[in-house]
Structures are given as C-alpha cells and as structure tokens.
Amino acid sequence: MDAATVLEQYTQDLSNLPSELAHLLEELRDKDMTLYQIRKRTQGKDNQLHKYIKQHGSLVKHPKEQQLYSKINEDFTKAKALQEEKILLSNTALLLISKHLVRLESDIEKLESEGLLAPDDMIEEDKNMSDGMSSLTPVPPSQSSTPGVVPKKRQRNGVSRTQSRFESPPLSSSAPTRTHRKKNASELNQTGEEDELYCFCQQVSFGDMIACDNPDCKYEWFHYDCVGLTAQPPSGIWYCPDCKNDQSVRKRDRKKKKVET
After folding, report:
1. 165-260: CATH, from 3.10.180.10, 2.40.10.410, 3.30.40.10, 3.10.450.50
2. Which of 50, 101, 156, 243 gives 214 a disulfide partner, CB atoms 3.0 to 4.6 angstroms apart?
3. What sequence ranges are listed for the domain PHD-type (predicted)?
C-alpha cells in the first residue's frame, strides 16, 4: 500500500458521499419549511386570541378558545417530532463523514509508520523553514523573532472545547489500556444517569461503548457502531474522529509515543 493507492481508493469511496449528503440536506430543508408553516399557523391562532381579549377583555372567553388551544397543542406536537427527525438526519450526516475520516486517519497512520508518508509535524517544520528562507524583506527584530505560522497555531489550539461530562485522568505513560476503557451500557448506567446522552448520536447508552482517550473530548463515550468499530476493541490509545482531526491532540500523541520509545 502506498499514498497514491490510498488516495485513489479514498476518492472512489467518497464518490457517493456528496449525493448522500445532498439528499439529507434536502430533507432537512423540507422539514424546515414545514416547521415554518407550523410556526406561522400557530402564531396566527395566538394573535386571534389576543385580538379577541383586547376587544372584549380577559374575562370574556373566546367562543372557539378550546378549539384553538387544541390545534395549537397539535402543532406543537408536530413541531417537536419534526425537530427530532432533523436531529436524526443531522447525526446521520455526521456519521457518514466521520466513518470516512476514521478510515483516512487510520490509513495515514499506517503510511507514516511504514515510512511512506512524512508525519504532519515534519511537513510543518519544512514549511516553517521554507517560509523563513523565502523572506527577503528585512523586518524589525520584534517581528522577525516570531514565526509566521504562530498565529495559525494559536488560532487552532485556542479553539474552546466543551468540558467532558465525566472526569477522566490525563494522558500519561501509565494510562489504562483500551480494555479498561471499554464498557457496556449497564456499567455506564451504574455510574451515571440512565437518561444521560452519549456519543455523536446523542442517545442513551446501549451495547458496547468505548471511551476517547482525549481528556478534553466533548462526548468521551461512543457506541461501537457510531465510530465504525467491531466487537473487538482496538488496542492502545484510541481517539474519536473529532479528536483525531484535532492537530494539537495528534501532536501530543506523537510526542508521547516518541518518549515511550
């Protein structure tokens, strides 16, 4: 396996992704339009009631008040169901993208470990050196002492991450193995609320679940199916798709591996 083969195969696998995402987005748009009509209809009934109260006073009951309230409640029920369907469609789109990212990241790591692809940190160091050598215009010492890519690093590393809903130990050389971070739904329910939501899909715990080893992970616990895992948990450190794509997490993991070796 080489980089060209991986790129070609990955491009083929992605060929259907745009149409799949377009279909999901179209469904989301249709549901948004339906929600807009429901909101408009509900607002009209509410205005009708307020207008009657303004004309006759709050003590005089609208002749169709009960009927109007009943229809408003029906519209609220429909709106809630549509919102839940929108959440499901959004999570489906996220899952489609995440599965491709997980596979790509895995292939990149294999190529890097076999020496067929330069690691990201080496590429960035080469870029920094190239940027420094290509600068012909002298600048004041206070500016030249600051590499040109520092603002990008600060911007990337400065993105705020939602604190994990569970406390987890920081990554270290004595971090628990993957088997210690695997749990099933019953074990999670014993340590937290039964209605606690997990994973990208934001559903309750069920079946086998796996924890991301990034202590700042937004979700931390994931269902196997949602991250493309089989019954056999991966060995060693494992990151969810979001954390794998976080450059700061990847660099920290590489530095840790270098220290261990």
Report:
1. 3.30.40.10
2. 243
3. 196-246
